[in-house]
Model the fold of this input.
Amino acid sequence: MAAARVPLWAVCVLRMALATVYFQEDFLDGERWRNRWVQSTNDSQFGYFRLSSGKFYGHKEKDKGLQTTQNSRFYAISARFKPFSNKGKTLIIQYTVKHEQKMDCGGGYIKLFPADVDQKNLNGKSQYYIMFGPDICGFDVKKVHVILHFKNQYHSNKKSIRCKVDGFTHLYTLILRPDLTYEVKIDGQSIESGSIEYDWQLTSLKKMEKPSAESKDWDQATEGKSQDWEKHFLDARASKPSDWNSELDGDWQAPMLQKPPYQDGLKPEGIDKDVWLHQKMKNTNYLTEYDLSEFENIGAIGLELWQVRSGTIFDNFLITDDEEYAENFGKATWGETKGPEREMDAIQAKEEEKKAREEDEDEQMMGRFGGRENIFKGFHKRNEL
Done:
């Protein structure tokens, strides 16, 4: 007897009981999203969002998300949730983005903000913890941003991570682990991973050497030939002769002896008895291990970006501490509709191609009839003459 197949949604429910889901948004309750999301009024020229599944989709309701609506505008919108710290925990940020307008220049990234962010005044200067997602502009910029905020500075991942540039919906996932490793996934596939410390070039903030940490019995020897090195020195063992007459001979001075030639590399006695290492001291700007992957007061997620051509759709937002739950949620949302979405796009493309061909044929036919009409008119005119 074959085993019963467990629906994917049931797996998600089971994992949710084990995982901590800080935020989840899939816009399945219609216009109620406006009660959870706040559009910034910082600038009267900010563009507006609407709920839409776009011109083509895999499922009309499931694929509805926040869509930008006005060209050449800045956008700023956010949703608040119960503040949390990811100390000692994995942090997963995931969402889908669809540039159905074939993006030429604009952002498709999201930001995580501290709990005290002013949602009504959200703008490009609002401090954020994490910025993650695609950014496209012309031929040069087609990248996935992963920017982390530490010690009042924003640090970008030094690796170049290429984003998707077509008009279909794509699933973006960022994983930050407490062991200082990270992973970036697109459509469930790992495309980049590594060390948070090294890939964000944070090693300079780790530790510095203490310059005064010498051993107590360390002999401070100068390196190289000193500037006051002389070729002669007084003979300290010499004594004034008994028959020396100061009135006739003048004041007595000890004779000068010649020094041996200077030899580089002379060392004080005992210098090579052991290897002395600089002591380490904590840099006042040093980020501890937890600092590198921890944010204390995460409390909001938002879109703060610029777009030349509008039409991008953002959906299926998720913040959790469970990688398996995030994977299952991605499969239950994007995974279920990605295929039908492409099928609908292909059908529409064929219909548009057919329509264009028919219009072209109509134009050609009208051109033929137009030519015959001119011939008949000319014939009648000649008869009149």
User: Anything to note?
Assistant: The chain is about 20% helix and 30% strand. The CA atoms of residues 206 and 330 lie 36 Å apart.
